[in-house]
Records
---
Amino acid sequence: MKRALGSIVCLACFITACGDSATAPTEIVSGGVWGNDLLVFTATASGATIESGCDSGRIEGSIATDQSGGFSLPGTYVFGRGGPGQSGDPLLKAHSARYVGRIAGQTMELTISLPELSRTLGPFQLSFGRRNLLDRCL
């Protein structure tokens, strides 16, 4: 009887440990810059900003990774335009976006999905601490 009870307790502990651990957040990404020649991803405690040429993006809320370093977060993405603004120019539109990534050590792989446009940007390989001067729109 003691042996059966011990097995049940062991099984319960195993189920509890494995239950939601694959999807539960395990680490909050601390502030810092991840970048490459095309894109800069700046993480803060309250979210992230993304810059790429004329374009920009935003993630609201902390960035939590799962046990494998992955994340999938909603946000917005805006396609900018170059040249001086003119009166009557249409406003830039923020598109719903999904930022999917994986962090392994000092490297982040990031893909940006724009479902309403049926468009995907990336994947981008970003390095922690790398902030390049991006070609900005003029």
---
Amino acid sequence: MRWRRDHQSPKANELSHDMRVSVGFSDPSKRVYAAVAGQARILRDEALAAQLWRPAQRAWYPAGSSDQHLSILRVTPERAEYWETPGRVSYLLAALAATVAGKPAAVAPGHKLP
């Protein structure tokens, strides 16, 4: 996994002392969620920065992909989990079934990736 990051930011300074990170992702419109934990390192790679560059990032890095503050945060995953949640109707049906059965509702368990 890779993200762009200013190598002189307070967060980059934190990473110089402890490279353990946790990263989350969500797309509520598709009802998918993920969490990744692992080790990070900061890379200064102009070719990779140019490949990952998007024009909207110019607000943070005015000189573009060659901005001297731009760096890449590479995360090597150690653990990951993801969830796909059902829609609202599924939640309501599960709640109704649980109420009738007198048992807790079981909806959308998470999945751990090796």
---
Amino acid sequence: MKTIQKNSQVSTLEIILKGWKTLIKELGKEGATKFLRAFSFGQGNSVNDFRKMWQGMDLEKIHKEILKAKKEKEI
């Protein structure tokens, strides 16, 4: 899996496109769209929501949880 280096100069658009492609790859278009719609712009604090949801989980664990949910057709 390609990762974005912390010190790299990556534009916001590049981040958005990479994120969207990753969501589609893992969740499909419908799942990716549902995921993004769950977080409305300008309301709440999605950063805190993600932190609470994924507290104590490393990236590998999050990935496994997504794959499990996909396999069980939860997403």
